[in-house]
């Protein structure tokens, strides 16, 4: 059985490849730059681009199962090509808020494309990626500071290796067809606590400058973030800061239930990425 991993050199895809290789599966890894893939020995690395479905056709020959990185604009053409090639099962990397993402390039567009095909499908919907904190790595490296609003906002960050472990398990194990797994990390933490965990991982104090939301909004938009995105995420942070919620245990239980091992903490994630922040 050959399993195609798209987005194979991405933050999650690289871990999906490793999980499958470690459990003895034959992996074909799709990436736009095969020469720079740096994937484990034994992985068949092929070139292709999800934004150009025709470029995927050679890589689909002989593939039974596929991990699909979400690119909504071309999802229907990619899924149709997979179906023509004889792929039977697709696992979609989606998001916990997929139902609210109605854009043509959003998670929901990919989910619907797969659901409306003749393929067996499973959706993997992690909550906030712990790796979002990598956006702050330059400021932490340069000045040991994070400058953003809502230090009291609470989230439940998920290690990308746990996302990959869930995806790999439902790719190779039967009994998950037609299921959507929404999950998150094992603990709810304020933004300030997450910054403290990064500081502990690098052995340094990282300051949290709690910005005025109006000032931060103007800065983010000025730096190129879409206005709608800024308003959405700031509103979510503001509500969380006003009404912090405890750990969603139902979401937290999914990783250990599916993988048979505890979910990684944010402190573990920070330790794994310490070099990015030093």
Report on this model:
With about 280 residues, this protein is of the alpha/beta class. It has two domains: about 1-125, 3-Layer(aba) Sandwich (Rossmann fold), CATH 3.40.50; about 130-155 and about 185-245 and about 265-275, Rossmann fold (3-Layer(aba) Sandwich). It has 13 helices and eleven strands. The protein has helices at about 15-20, 55-60, 75-85, 105-115, 135-145, 160-170, 190-200, 215-220, 225-240, 250, 255-260, 265-270, 275, and strands spanning about 1-5, 25-30, 45, 65-70, 90-95, 120-125, 145-150, 155, 180-185, 190, 205-210. The strands form three sheets. It has a seven-stranded parallel β-sheet, with helices on both faces. The radius of gyration is 19 Å and the shape is globular. The relative contact order is 0.13. The model has no long low-confidence stretch (mean pLDDT about 95).
List the keywords.
278 residues; alpha/beta; Rossmann fold; 2 domains; 7-stranded parallel β-sheet; two-stranded parallel sheet; 13 helices; globular
What's the helix and strand layout?
Elements: E1 2-5, H1 13-22, E2 26-31, E3 44-47, H2 57-60, E4 63-68, H3 75-85, E5 89-93, H4 107-115, E6 120-126, H5 137-143, E7 145-148, E8 154-155, H6 160-172, E9 179-183, E10 189-190, H7 191-202, E11 207-210, H8 213-222, H9 227-242, H10 249-252, H11 254-259, H12 266-272, H13 274-277
Parallel strand pairs: 1-2, 1-4, 2-3, 4-5, 5-6, 6-9, 7-11
Antiparallel strand pairs: 8-10
Helix pairs in contact: 1-6, 7-12, 8-9
Pfam families: NAD_binding_10
Domain NAD(P)-binding: 7-172
InterPro entries: Ergot_Alk_Oxidoreductase, NAD(P)-bd_dom, NAD(P)-bd_dom_sf
């Amino acid at each position: 059985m050959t399993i195609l991993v798209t987005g194979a050199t991405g933050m999650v895809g690289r871990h999906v490849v490793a999980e499958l290789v470690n459990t003895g599966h034959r992996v074909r890894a799709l990436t736009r730059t095969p020469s720079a893939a740096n994937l484990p020995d034994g992985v068949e690395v092929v070139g292709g681009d999800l934004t150009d479905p025709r470029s995927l056709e050679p890589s689909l020959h002989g593939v039974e199962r596929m991990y699909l990185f979400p690119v909504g604009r071309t999802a229907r053409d990619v899924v149709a090509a997979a179906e023509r090639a004889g792929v039977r099962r697709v696992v979609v990397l989606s998001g916990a808020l997929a139902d609210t993402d109605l854009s043509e390039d959003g998670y929901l567009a990919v989910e619907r494309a797969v659901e409306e095909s003749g393929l067996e499908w499973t959706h993997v919907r992690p909550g906030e990626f712990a790796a979002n904190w990598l956006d702050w790595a330059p400021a932490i490296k340069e000045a040991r500071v994070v400058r953003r609003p809502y230090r009291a906002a609470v989230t439940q960050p998920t290690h990308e290796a746990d996302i990959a472990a869930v995806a790999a398990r439902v790719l190779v194990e039967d009994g998950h067809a037609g299921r959507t797994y929404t999950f998150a990390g094992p603990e709810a933490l304020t933004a300030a606590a997450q910054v403290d965990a990064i500081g502990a991982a690098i052995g340094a104090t990282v300051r949290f400058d709690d910005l005025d939301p109006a000032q931060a909004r103007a800065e983010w938009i000025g730096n190129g973030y879409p206005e709608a995105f800024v308003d959405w995420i700031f509103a979510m942070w503001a509500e969380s800061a006003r009404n912090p919620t405890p750990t969603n245990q139902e979401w937290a239980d999914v990783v250990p239930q599916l993988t048979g091992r505890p979910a990684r903490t944010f402190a573990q994630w920070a330790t794994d990425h310490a070099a990015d922040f030093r």
